[in-house]
Every structure is written in structure tokens, then in C-alpha cells.
Write a structure and sequence with these properties.
This protein is an alpha/beta fold. About 45% of the residues lie in helices and about 20% in strands. It folds into 2 domains: about 15-160, Alpha-Beta Plaits; about 175-435, EAL domain (TIM Barrel, Alpha-Beta Barrel). The strands form 3 sheets. It has an 8-stranded mixed beta barrel with strand order 8-9-11-12-13-14-15-16, surrounded by 5 helices. The longest helix has 22 residues, at about 165-185. The chain starts with 12 loop residues before the first helix and ends in an 11-residue tail after the last helix. Bound molecules: ligand C2E and magnesium ion (MG) (2 copies). Ligand C2E binds near residues 239, 262 and 408.
Length: about 425
């Protein structure tokens, strides 16, 4: 009993660890591989149809996988929707590819439980003995790191452990620990980047961008720490406190200037998220009409219905909603059609090439025209050069943002910028270009 998983009748984690220990301590150095696999698409099934269906799916998945491995290796259930395997022999990368494909093919046929049809896939991480490690625990950890990488790259794939995975896993762990402490100590900061109305050349507001310096790693980009905060459950606490700070700063600006703030996928798809945002604005004293939520399509895709509820609530309160990083990821015109957007932000990877790549120039022109037809604002991100600006103005892009105008700045630099804007009535000088 102590070594059997009661649900699937497979060896359990303890049995698997013992098996591995026996092998590595035999002293023969006979090669084998360790694989950890995780079912893609299991969690939504469990959430939607309940645990009884989920259990049957796990039993069937285990049965199919172990049948496929019969006579070749051993399968164990590690817990949840995670399984592990050992296969004897020296494997080349090609051999491992074949094995992964063969195992994954057991999910070509859907799993049917009652009248529920479940389509699954799986991701694998592999480590090899003795090359990756001669230690049983470390073989599992390293297969796990490879699995993490496989899932991060895309579901339904596999990776073989590589030393660089360990470095990034260690870095991730440091970031997580330091970030936890930084959030507790309220040590995150915000910089503000001007958004310029390209028709008038005047400031229309600022985008708040999180800034953080890890005591051990130095400055870490939000593109790195935001996803980590999302994965380890820190995102809500983090962004709620950042939003409160940013909104308080914005209350001190002239009332025609708006605050744009990036919403995390994890903030937008929770019930009550829209209300929470509105209540934070109220706490800070920033009228909702001066607030703009920036949401990426990837965030919306995580849960289209929940996102719609949050977006409609934010809109009903009088705030605006912008679709961020348009053109990257899984862009879909259905979001543009179905969601009540006020603004689309063209990703800077496009803006960067408007003058050098004719096709991209045409795409950007079309996005601008689409916004014009829909009567919504169009913001070009990442304007770095005069030629970018000239192109965008020529094609009637309504707003712009980028290093050409200014880098993101600390709060203390904002008042002089605002004064300059109202004094000179010209677009902000490229003074901060090299700041
Ligand atoms: P984003 O929302 O698309 O923000 C624009 C990014 O482009 C910022 O990077 C900004 O510094 C950078 N940028 C602006 N102008 C230029 C330019 O002319 N050239 C170049 N090369 N870059 C420019 P940053 O600050 O590193 O932020 C990266 C991403 O992290 C943001 O992309 C946003 O998705 C996310 N992020 C930042 N702050 C927060 C936050 O408080 N909450 C959440 N959830 N996400 C945040
Ligand atoms: Mg943004
Ligand atoms: Mg963006």
C-alpha cells in the first residue's frame, strides 16, 4: 500500500524514488533515462466536470501510458496529473524524441468518461543517468526543470535537461524569494512614460511601468518578474499596491492627463477583479475617467468570458480599456469586434520596422485605418526615431509613446515635464532620449 498509488494502482512517488535510489546505488553506472510528464489540459477538465470525471481520466491516462511502456520501462504516478518513468538504456536525443512521440500518441484518441469527451496532450522533461546526475533526487529535479521549460515553450512538447535550465531555475528561485520580500517591504517602484497626442503634440497621459531592483541580481525587468509573480501567486498583492501608488501619483497631475496601467492576466480573469480595480481608484481619489486599463490579448485569451465581465465593469465605471501589444501573440480580430475597446496599442516590434520593412509599414497603416474606422484611439509604442514619428504622423496615428519622446521616468521628473508641455505647447523635446 505504501508504495502504490491508490487511484491508478501504479507505483507512487515513494516507490519511484526507491527504484531510482536502488539503481544509482548499485554502482554499475548502467545508463537509463528519467522522464517526468504532465498532462496538458487536465486541470480545466477537473474544474469543469468535477473530481470524479478527473479521477477516471487519470486512471485511463495511466493505463494507456503504462501499456505503451510495457516491457520497456516503468511508469509511476507522482501526484496530481504528473507521472514519471524510467527506461533502461543509453538514449540519444533522437531516441528520446521517438519515445516522447510514442508516449504522446496514446492521447491521439480522446478519453471518454460517460458522456464527457476529453482531449489531452502531455509535456515531458527528461534527464539521463549518469550524464545529467548520479544522484536520484537530482535526476528528478533536473527532469522537472526540463519539464518546466517544455511547458513554458509550449504545451505538448518535451525537453532534455541542459545546464542552462538549472541556471535559470536558480535565478527564478532567487527572484521569487527577493520579490516576496520586496512586496512585503513595499519596495517596488513605478516609472511613468509619457503618451503623446500626435495630432496636437501634447501630453495626454502616462503609462505606469513597474521597476524593481533585486538585492542579489540588480535591476530585473518587469517582463521577467511579472510572469514569476503570476506563477507564484504574488501578482495580486503586487499589482494592487502598485496600482494604488500609481493612482495616487496621478491625482497630482492636471486633470486632463490620464494614467495607463498594465493589467495582469491573473488580475483580469478573477471574479471581482473589475470591482477591485475601481475600489483602488476610489481609495486613491483618481476619477475613473482618468484611468486606462491596458490588457494584452494573451491575458484575454486565458479566460475570455471572465475578462469580458471585468472589462465591462471597468467601462461601466467610466474608465477606458486599451488592447496592449497588438499584433503579437494570438491576435484575433474577434477581440477587436467583441470587446468594448477604447484604444489599441501597436506593439513596438512593428513600429521598429515601419520604415525598413514595406510589408510591416502596410500592416501598421492598416491597423491605424482600422482604428479610425472603429473610432478608437491608436497608440504606437516604442517610437525611437524621427522617421518612425514622421511615418506615423503621415498616416494619422493618433498617439505615440517611445524613447524619442521620453524614457519611463521616476515620479519626481514628471512635474517639470508637465510644465514644459503646457508652457511650450510643442511636443516634448527629445531631451530625455539619452537619459
Ligand atoms: P508594455 O506594457 O508593452 O510596456 C511598454 C514597454 O516598452 C516598457 O518596457 C517600456 O519601457 C518599453 N518601451 C517604451 N518605449 C520604448 C522604446 O522606444 N524602445 C524600446 N526598446 N522600448 C520601449 P518595460 O517597462 O520593461 O515593461 C515590459 C512589460 O512588462 C510591459 O510591456 C508590461 O507588459 C509589463 N509590465 C510593466 N509594468 C507592469 C505592471 O505594473 N503590471 C503588470 N501586470 N505588467 C507590467
Ligand atoms: Mg502596456
Ligand atoms: Mg505594449
Amino acid at each position: 500500500m505504501a508504495y502504490t498509488d491508490t487511484l491508478t494502482d501504479l507505483p507512487n512517488r515513494r516507490a519511484f524514488e526507491r527504484l531510482l535510489n536502488d539503481r544509482v546505488s548499485s554502482g554499475t553506472l548502467k545508463p537509463f533515462i528519467v522522464g517526468i510528464l504532465d498532462l496538458d489540459g487536465f486541470k480545466p477538465v477537473n474544474d469543469a466536470y468535477g473530481h470524479a470525471v478527473g479521477d477516471d481520466v487519470l486512471i485511463e491516462a495511466g493505463r494507456r501510458l503504462s501499456t505503451q511502456l510495457r516491457g520497456v520501462g516503468t511508469l509511476a504516478r507522482m501526484g496530481g496529473d504528473e507521472f514519471a518513468l524510467i527506461v533502461d538504456g543509453r538514449f540519444s536525443a533522437d531516441d528520446i524524441n521517438h519515445l516522447a512521440l510514442r508516449l504522446r500518441s496514446v492521447f491521439d484518441e480522446p478519453i471518454i468518461v460517460g458522456d464527457v469527451i476529453v482531449r489531452l496532450s502531455c509535456s515531458f522533461g527528461f534527464s539521463t543517468y549518469p550524464d545529467c546526475s548520479e544522484d536520484a533526487g537530482r535526476l528528478i529535479d533536473r527532469a522537472d526543470m526540463a519539464l518546466y521549460r517544455a511547458k513554458a515553450d509550449h504545451n505538448g512538447s518535451h525537453r532534455i535537461f541542459d545546464a542552462s535550465y538549472e541556471r535559470s531555475a536558480i535565478e527564478r528561485a532567487i527572484i521569487e524569494q527577493d520579490l516576496r520580500e520586496a512586496i512585503r517591504a513595499d519596495a517596488l517602484q513605478i516609472h511613468f512614460q509619457p503618451i503623446i497626442n500626435l495630432t496636437t503634440g501634447r501630453l495626454s497621459g502616462f503609462e505606469a511601468l513597474a521597476r524593481w531592483t533585486s538585492p542579489r541580481l540588480g535591476p530585473v525587468s518587469p517582463a521577467v518578474f511579472v510572469p514569476i509573480a503570476e506563477q507564484c501567486g504574488l501578482i495580486e498583492a503586487m499589482t494592487n499596491s502598485l496600482l494604488l501608488k500609481a493612482a495616487r501619483v496621478a491625482t497630482r497631475w492636471p486633470s486632463h492627463l490620464r494614467l495607463a496601467f498594465n493589467m495582469s492576466a491573473y488580475q483580469i480573469d478573477k471574479p471581482g477583479s473589475g470591482l477591485k480595480i475601481i475600489s483602488i481608484l476610489a481609495e486613491a481619489g483618481l476619477p475613473p475617467h482618468r484611468f486606462e486599463a491596458e490588457i494584452t490579448e494573451t491575458a484575454i485569451l486565458k479566460n475570455v468570458e471572465a475578462s469580458r465581465v471585468a472589462i465591462e465593469l471597468i467601462k461601466a465605471a467610466g474608465a477606458r480599456v486599451a488592447l496592449d501589444d497588438f499584433g503579437t501573440g494570438f491576435s484575433s480580430l474577434s477581440h477587436v469586434k467583441d470587446l468594448p475597446l477604447d484604444k489599441i496599442k501597436i506593439d513596438r516590434s512593428f513600429v521598429d520596422k515601419v520604415c525598413t520593412d514595406e510589408k510591416i509599414g502596410n500592416i501598421v497603416r492598416s491597423i491605424i485605418q482600422m482604428c479610425e474606422c472603429l473610432d478608437i484611439e491608436c497608440v504606437a509604442e516604442g517610437i525611437e526615431h524621427d522617421e518612425h514619428l514622421a511615418f506615423l504622423i503621415k498616416h494619422n496615428c493618433t498617439s505615440g509613446q517611445g524613447f524619442l519622446f521620453s524614457r519611463p521616468l521616476p515620479e519626481t521628473r514628471i512635474p517639470s515635464l508637465i510644465t514644459e508641455d503646457s508652457d511650450s505647447n510643442v511636443r516634448i523635446a527629445a531631451r530625455d532620449r539619452a537619459a
